[in-house]
Amino acid sequence: MRESSYLLRILNSLELGDKSLSEELVRESSELKKILGSVSSNVSESLKKN
Questions:
Q1: Is the pLDDT reported for residue 16 higher than 90?
Q2: Which of 19, 22, 30, 35 has the CB geometry, 3.0–4.6 Å to 12, for a possible disulfide?
Q3: Where along the chain do its domains lie?
């Protein structure tokens, strides 16, 4: 996930392809990282309690 986000940011900065689509993909990638990080944290805390 981290590598994909990195590559998307590079492509966005190089202005390759559709700029609005590129920006949207960078935002979605960031949102997915936050969601997955939150899920991972919650699962980890839940497992520690059991």
A1: no
A2: 22
A3: 2-49
